[in-house]
Amino acid sequence: MTQQAVAAPQPVPTSDKLDAAVLKVAGVVVLGAIMSILDVTVVSVALPTFQSEFDASYARVAWTMTGYTLALATVIPLSGWAADRFGTKRLYMVALALFTIGSVLCATADTIGELIGYRVLQGLGGGMLMPIGMTIMTRAAGPHRIGRLMAVLGIPMLLGPIGGPILGGWLIDVASWHWIFLINLPIGAIALIYAQLALPKDSPQPSESFDFLGMLMLSPGLALFLYGVSSLPEAGTFADPEVWAPMLIGAALVVAFVLYSFKPRHPLLDLRLFRNRSLTIAAVTMFVFIIAFMGAGLLFPSYFLQVRGESTLAAGLLMAPQGIGAMITMPIAGTLADRVPIGRTVPFALALIVLGFFAFTQVDPNTSYVLLCGSLFVMGLGMGGTMMPIMTSALKTLHAQEVARGSTLVNILQQIGGSVGAAVMSVILTNELNGSQPIPGVTDPSGKPITEAGLAIAAQQRPELTQQFPVDPSLIERGLNFAASSFGTTFWVAFALVLLTFIPAAFLPRRRERSHLLDDQPGEQGKTPVVIH
């Protein structure tokens, strides 16, 4: 008895430290997180390359991002159910394998349709890596060391926005676009072997029923609706059946999902949580912000590539200030979120984003890089002070048994917002560029007229085209001015959406709210929230 009494307190002083066994498990999860997070940012600099490689519009190639994020949103709620049903180790290795196989298939794509399909497969694996990885780490270390675990996972989350565009640009410049996907093959193989050796054996247990019907309504509904929106620039009118038919069917499926989701005991998304005012305000704020910021974020590197004629590596390096800004403020914002109500901090972070964003609404073919890189840095500072505090505020007011469902809900809204933003901003840009004047007598191999903006953009990447199409130099200048104006108009739409974010942000809590988690039983805190990425 005496030995027990003496031994019991021993772990307390070091209980928040991560021992070697936990760090070994964390290494597997960090490898998966690096692949998943880098892949989102790596592809952002490749979109103009996909345009020229597959002879597709910007709205079409943006589906390599839209399809990926929709796939992420599909599997996030599936992850928790499947982890209980099949075991975390087995499921994590399946996710790694899916992501790696999807990556290799992406590198073999011969058409843009194939690439989009393989990106969806990749997203099905990538969407499970973070939530399952977080579950594995929480079980290995215990909920009381969540803060330390988040610090470990924070490394790839912070480095992804900086390293992704640079890595993607470098691989495209020195090799080809195929290598932005093939790079995942050795990492995935190492991660699979590491996972087999390091992760504890599975102990599957009975799980809650899964809402497959809800999943079959929400995911196809969103995909069909956004496909209809994306078809608008090529169709030219909402009256075209290729536009209105998928939009109508998709909208009907989403509405049916919302009505249905209040009936099951364990719905795909627990919309009942929106009765919580704090969660609703935080979710709306984040959703509007993500549409604007993530949608426009895809266009920043495209402006550097298509209007300024930079290499993909240079475009990636020019994007780095944004990631550096976020890396500076994210840890500070995380600390402040526990001490200062976010209603007093998030509006200032949003103001920084607005300040930085405005410069991009004024872009022309010669806008100062000092101004643009400075603006990206300021936007990064604002972004680092926005996302995590809003998520923390939303979850803090939930009871322990609601946290997993609440974080799943907010994370899926984030992925949907990113999908909507990518689709809408790419459609606006494509529509604007389509308004450029066609060059008389000049057509592409398929017989389609080439516009002034189209030729100017192509000539920025391949100057030899001006020899094939002898034209007045002023035509190229007009084309570049029109292209820059098209980007500026698209940025104005995103800018207006960021301004709209101030409306729900004004209702964020300005006084400290007591966390319901403090009132709950300790045993209920084992539910693992989903990490936003």
From TrEMBL:
<feature type="transmembrane region" description="Helical">
    <location>
        <begin position="21"/>
        <end position="46"/>
    </location>
</feature>
<feature type="transmembrane region" description="Helical">
    <location>
        <begin position="212"/>
        <end position="231"/>
    </location>
</feature>
<feature type="transmembrane region" description="Helical">
    <location>
        <begin position="149"/>
        <end position="172"/>
    </location>
</feature>
<keyword id="KW-0472">Membrane</keyword>
<keyword id="KW-0812">Transmembrane</keyword>
<keyword id="KW-1133">Transmembrane helix</keyword>
<dbReference type="InterPro" id="IPR011701">
    <property type="entry name" value="MFS"/>
</dbReference>
<feature type="transmembrane region" description="Helical">
    <location>
        <begin position="58"/>
        <end position="79"/>
    </location>
</feature>
<feature type="transmembrane region" description="Helical">
    <location>
        <begin position="281"/>
        <end position="300"/>
    </location>
</feature>
<dbReference type="Pfam" id="PF07690">
    <property type="entry name" value="MFS_1"/>
</dbReference>
<feature type="transmembrane region" description="Helical">
    <location>
        <begin position="409"/>
        <end position="429"/>
    </location>
</feature>
<feature type="transmembrane region" description="Helical">
    <location>
        <begin position="91"/>
        <end position="110"/>
    </location>
</feature>
<feature type="transmembrane region" description="Helical">
    <location>
        <begin position="489"/>
        <end position="508"/>
    </location>
</feature>
<dbReference type="InterPro" id="IPR020846">
    <property type="entry name" value="MFS_dom"/>
</dbReference>
<keyword id="KW-0813">Transport</keyword>
<protein>
    <submittedName>
        <fullName>DHA2 family efflux MFS transporter permease subunit</fullName>
    </submittedName>
</protein>
<feature type="transmembrane region" description="Helical">
    <location>
        <begin position="243"/>
        <end position="260"/>
    </location>
</feature>
<feature type="transmembrane region" description="Helical">
    <location>
        <begin position="116"/>
        <end position="137"/>
    </location>
</feature>
<dbReference type="InterPro" id="IPR004638">
    <property type="entry name" value="EmrB-like"/>
</dbReference>
<feature type="transmembrane region" description="Helical">
    <location>
        <begin position="178"/>
        <end position="200"/>
    </location>
</feature>
<dbReference type="InterPro" id="IPR036259">
    <property type="entry name" value="MFS_trans_sf"/>
</dbReference>
<feature type="transmembrane region" description="Helical">
    <location>
        <begin position="312"/>
        <end position="333"/>
    </location>
</feature>
<feature type="transmembrane region" description="Helical">
    <location>
        <begin position="345"/>
        <end position="363"/>
    </location>
</feature>
<keyword id="KW-1003">Cell membrane</keyword>
<feature type="transmembrane region" description="Helical">
    <location>
        <begin position="369"/>
        <end position="388"/>
    </location>
</feature>
<feature type="domain" description="Major facilitator superfamily (MFS) profile">
    <location>
        <begin position="25"/>
        <end position="513"/>
    </location>
</feature>
